User: What shape does this take?
Amino acid sequence: MSKILIIEDEAAIRRVLGKIIRNENDSFVVEEAEDGLSGFQMIEKTDYDLVLCDIKMPKMDGVEVLERTQKIKPDIPFIMISGHGELETAVQTMRLGAFDYISKPPDLNRLLNAIRNALDRKQLVVENKRLKKKVDKNFQMIGESEAIADIKKLIDKVAPTEARVLITGNNGTGKELVAHWIHQKSNRSKGVMVEVNCAAIPSELIESELFGHVKGSFTGANKDRSGKFETANGGTIFLDEVGDMSLSAQAKVLRALQENKISRVGSDKDIKIDVRVITATNKDLKKEIAAGNFREDLYHRLAVILIHVPSLNDRKDDIPLLIEHFSNIISQQQGVAPKKFHKDSIKLLQEYDWTGNVRELRNIIERLMILGEDEISENDVKIFAMK
Ligand SMILES: Nc1ncnc2c1ncn2[C@@H]1O[C@H](COP(=O)(O)OP(=O)(O)OP(=O)(O)O)[C@@H](O)[C@H]1O
Ligand SMILES: [Mg+2]
Assistant: This one.
């Protein structure tokens, strides 16, 4: 159902417009106002999906209705109705944010087209906002512990620079989240952040994945392909599990960092790149260096800034907040009401040994919300969360 408001002082035009729109689609609900002021008062009270608005009207003209609506409900698209000799004003309203305009007498096709486009765009805007909210929530970094506060401060300091950052920490502590925020708060946030999980790619493919290849450079390379460094140009590349990268790939990454140039596998043509590198690992790279698995020169290039994300066991004060946060996210995702956690259940969860860190906590909250009582009890935790 779409709610459409027609603001027009000429009764004949109002009637024609209303009739055309109602005929077009049964799900269009049309309301009418006969001057600008009463139209605006209706907009204040009701959420319309679209407003058709005359320009010259008594009490308040169409331009003012548009401007005042934009201050309170900026997502409502306006189609202006321009009378004879008002074309210039109509064009001007588009600059003020009107979606489109039609001239009197209204042309049927032009009118219906404008209405369809405006409603489509409205839906897109609303959907985008909804998605953005959902994504934002998923990327919130929750925690009031000193450790999290320090990490947030560090992110704010480091993000706007071009410095390379190495993020360390155990599985599921939130390393990727940190990388996400460094990119978001950097001057490259309009560019992409390309993620490469070095542990998930077989060592013989990692070079081609990172740097691309030319046709015929190895069996199966049947066309030229660009790699992640090229894709990330102007943005950020996030090399996750960098400690698992093969030594030959490490050598190539080192060159990319030293010279800001790469070449595709099988080609000696240099390609200039402008990429900020963020890396993460759950390995102790110093140990890997000692064991000959990681290049020390590369380590020093990558670890200009070190951010260590502590294990959840070392910041158990954050657990109640995290429980509430995940309960909200999960209930939203599944379309159910958030569950209350009894204080004894929270206390027990705080005593648990979180070897899988925040990711494990999230999974267990999800499990409890599916399997537990309406209010999660200490007993639910004992049954469903204990190893
Ligand atoms: N402080 C936090 N607040 C809210 N959510 C968090 C926090 N830390 C981690 N998470 C969530 O926990 C999950 C795991 O985090 P993330 O993937 O960033 O960890 P990781 O250290 O990269 O893990 P892995 O080593 O397994 O790759 C994600 O869903 C993330 O959004
Ligand atoms: Mg990760």
